[in-house]
Amino acid sequence: MIKRLRKTEADILLLSSSIFILSCTKGTLFHSYKPLPTEGWEQRDTICFDLPQQEEDISGTLTIGLRTKAYVSMQDIVLAVEQLNDSAGICRRDTIRYPLTNSEGDALTKGVNHHQYETEQLPISMKKGQGGSVRIHHLMRNETVQGITELGIKID
């Protein structure tokens, strides 16, 4: 009986610890997508995501998401990503080249009518009480990019 009670206590302690650790894990802080014009994404069109004021200091990762039609005419896309905060203006600029299709024009993701892509993770940090934004525009030779239906960001 005592051995069984100790095993039960150990199981309860393990379960409680797991719940505590999981409840302290932050997870996703911000996740949003914006539709792009059906006639195409113009190079001068900057997509802006406003970030709410933070309740505490954060140091996380920023992932850019793309949703495309089943067929896109380009093999990759180049994006300019700017992270801004309320007090200092632009605090980080990145250029991302992201592959969309292989050399035969086949999409690199699975999908029927649309495809979902996520870029590499970029570092992001904000101070308590600070808001900001993430601005994205494409750097392609063609002024208008066709086939991308939505652009989004996720901060973990």
Secondary-structure topology with pairs:
Elements: H1 2-24, E1 30-35, E2 41-42, E3 47-51, E4 58-69, E5 76-85, E6 89-99, E7 114-118, E8 122-126, E9 132-138, E10 144-145, E11 148-155
Antiparallel strand pairs: 1-11, 2-10, 3-9, 4-7, 4-8, 4-11, 5-6, 5-9
3D architecture notes:
The longest helix has 23 residues, at 2-24. With 156 residues, the chain is mainly beta. It is built from one helix and eleven strands, in the order αβββββββββββ. Strands 1, 4, 7, 8 and 11 form a five-stranded antiparallel sheet that branches. The chain has one helix spanning 2-24, and strands spanning 30-35, 41-42, 47-51, 58-69, 76-85, 89-99, 114-118, 122-126, 132-138, 144-145, 148-155. A hairpin with a 3-residue loop joins strand 5 and strand 6. Mean pLDDT is 80; it is low at 1-5 and 13-25. The radius of gyration is 21 Å and the shape is elongated. It has one domain (27-155): Hypothetical Protein Tm1070, Chain: A.
| Average pLDDT level | 80
Write down the CATH class: Mainly Beta
Number of strands: 11
The span between the termini is 46 Å
Cα Rg: 21 Å
Shape: elongated
Architecture per CATH nomenclature, i.e. the level-2 architecture: Sandwich
Q: Which segments are poorly predicted (pLDDT under 50) over 5 or more consecutive residues?
A: 1-5, 13-25
Q: Biggest β-sheet, characterized?
A: 5 strands, antiparallel
- Report the order of strands and helices: HEEEEEEEEEEE
Helix/strand-derived class?
mainly beta
Total of domains = 1
Total DSSP helices: 1
> Percent range for helical residues?
10-25%
**Beta-strand residue percentage:** over 45%
